[in-house]
């Protein structure tokens, strides 16, 4: 019983490593937004909408990792 509990905690910890990738992805998206707006300020509105889409997609992968972690902890 203790071994299964330890394996659940280890698996949940490994699953949350994906949140690191989501954070890095969001940082890359917004650094590209700042770079693009500084190069061409007239495209600010279009670039911002693309950045929000990119942030949402990157955040979704992090939420999937978090969901797997919670499933491992509370459902199995």
Automatic annotation (TrEMBL):
<keyword id="KW-0999">Mitochondrion inner membrane</keyword>
<comment type="subunit">
    <text>F-type ATPases have 2 components, CF(1) - the catalytic core - and CF(0) - the membrane proton channel. CF(1) has five subunits: alpha(3), beta(3), gamma(1), delta(1), epsilon(1). CF(0) has three main subunits: a, b and c.</text>
</comment>
<keyword id="KW-0813">Transport</keyword>
<comment type="function">
    <text>Mitochondrial membrane ATP synthase (F(1)F(0) ATP synthase or Complex V) produces ATP from ADP in the presence of a proton gradient across the membrane which is generated by electron transport complexes of the respiratory chain. F-type ATPases consist of two structural domains, F(1) - containing the extramembraneous catalytic core and F(0) - containing the membrane proton channel, linked together by a central stalk and a peripheral stalk. During catalysis, ATP synthesis in the catalytic domain of F(1) is coupled via a rotary mechanism of the central stalk subunits to proton translocation.</text>
</comment>
<keyword id="KW-0375">Hydrogen ion transport</keyword>
<protein>
    <recommendedName>
        <fullName>ATP synthase subunit 9, mitochondrial</fullName>
    </recommendedName>
</protein>
<comment type="similarity">
    <text>Belongs to the ATPase C chain family.</text>
</comment>
<dbReference type="GO" id="GO:0008289">
    <property type="term" value="F:lipid binding"/>
</dbReference>
<keyword id="KW-0472">Membrane</keyword>
<keyword id="KW-0496">Mitochondrion</keyword>
<dbReference type="GO" id="GO:0015078">
    <property type="term" value="F:proton transmembrane transporter activity"/>
</dbReference>
<keyword id="KW-0406">Ion transport</keyword>
<dbReference type="GO" id="GO:0005743">
    <property type="term" value="C:mitochondrial inner membrane"/>
</dbReference>
<dbReference type="InterPro" id="IPR038662">
    <property type="entry name" value="ATP_synth_F0_csu_sf"/>
</dbReference>
<dbReference type="GO" id="GO:0033177">
    <property type="term" value="C:proton-transporting two-sector ATPase complex, proton-transporting domain"/>
</dbReference>
<dbReference type="InterPro" id="IPR020537">
    <property type="entry name" value="ATP_synth_F0_csu_DDCD_BS"/>
</dbReference>
<dbReference type="Pfam" id="PF00137">
    <property type="entry name" value="ATP-synt_C"/>
</dbReference>
<dbReference type="InterPro" id="IPR035921">
    <property type="entry name" value="F/V-ATP_Csub_sf"/>
</dbReference>
<keyword id="KW-0138">CF(0)</keyword>
<dbReference type="GO" id="GO:0045259">
    <property type="term" value="C:proton-transporting ATP synthase complex"/>
</dbReference>
<keyword id="KW-0812">Transmembrane</keyword>
<feature type="transmembrane region" description="Helical">
    <location>
        <begin position="12"/>
        <end position="35"/>
    </location>
</feature>
<dbReference type="InterPro" id="IPR002379">
    <property type="entry name" value="ATPase_proteolipid_c-like_dom"/>
</dbReference>
<feature type="domain" description="V-ATPase proteolipid subunit C-like">
    <location>
        <begin position="10"/>
        <end position="72"/>
    </location>
</feature>
<keyword id="KW-0446">Lipid-binding</keyword>
<feature type="transmembrane region" description="Helical">
    <location>
        <begin position="47"/>
        <end position="75"/>
    </location>
</feature>
<dbReference type="InterPro" id="IPR000454">
    <property type="entry name" value="ATP_synth_F0_csu"/>
</dbReference>
<dbReference type="GO" id="GO:0015986">
    <property type="term" value="P:proton motive force-driven ATP synthesis"/>
</dbReference>
<keyword id="KW-1133">Transmembrane helix</keyword>
């Amino acid at each position: 019983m203790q071994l299964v509990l330890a394996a659940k905690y280890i698996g949940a910890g490994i699953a949350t490593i994906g949140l690191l990738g989501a954070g890095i992805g969001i940082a890359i998206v917004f650094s590209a937004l700042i770079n693009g707006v500084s190069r061409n300020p007239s495209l600010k509105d279009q670039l911002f909408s693309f950045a929000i889409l990119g942030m949402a997609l990157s955040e979704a992968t992090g939420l999937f990792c978090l969901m797997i972690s919670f499933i491992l902890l509370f459902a199995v």
